Amino acid sequence: MRTFTKRIAAPLAIVISLSLAPALSGCSVNDIIKGASGGNVQLPGASVPADFPSEVPLLNNNVTYGLAIGKGSKKVWSVILKVDGASAIDDITTQLEAAGFTKETSYGGSTEDGATFAFSNDTYGVIVITAKDKKEGWIASYTVAPKGS
Fold first, then answer.
1. How many CA atoms lie within 13 A of 40 on its CB side?
2. CB 126 within 8 Å of CB 140
3. 97 with 104: CB under 8 angstroms?
4. Cβ count within 10 A of residue 124
5. Parallel, antiparallel, or unpaired: how do β-strands 124-133 and 137-146 relate?
6. pLDDT exceeds 50 at position 24
């Protein structure tokens, strides 16, 4: 699991940076995105990216943010959903395990303020974070990347 988390660190930093990009003044967001990704990005929006892996179930369709960056074995998807509360991690875990994903027991944990867990199957690694957002309320953030590259 450590290899997976290290491998998505840079793309995850780009995803986070892209969510902050509109705050930059005097810069073209499109130019920043093209430069950071080599043009291999689906711009963020309030929907699941068109090529999001169908074998990764999402808890609901209350999407507030969706982004894909990279291509092939270097692609990373990020989707943020509004959820009902801290207990959403239990439903997410049940759903991912039913779809054949295994929860990584050496990574993550849960408190009343949120949770972070990693899951994987033979094809993908998934990191799920639940937290209370000041604007949106409770959210679940999914970061998905292919394994083994």
1. 13
2. no
3. no
4. 18
5. antiparallel
6. no
**Nearest to 70, CA basis, from 109, 32, 20, 36:** 36
What percent of the chain stands above pLDDT 70?
70
Sign of CA dihedral 87, 94, 42, 147: positive
pLDDT value for 141: 95
| Domains of the chain, residue spans | 2-146
Tally DSSP H helices, then E strands, for the chain: 3, 7
CA distance 78 to 80: 7
For residues 125 and 120, give the distance between their C-alpha atoms in angstroms, rounded to a whole number: 4
Q: Specify whether the CB–CB gap between 125 and 1 falls below 8 A.
A: yes
Residues 87-117: tens digit of each pLDDT: 999 999 999 999 999 998 777 888 888 999 9
**The two structure tokens encoding residue 55:** 């074998």
Measured between alpha carbons, how far is 14 from 34 in angstroms, rounded to an integer?
12
* pLDDT over 70 (residue 76): yes
Q: Compute CA distances 69 → 18, 30, 143, whole Å.
A: 10, 13, 11
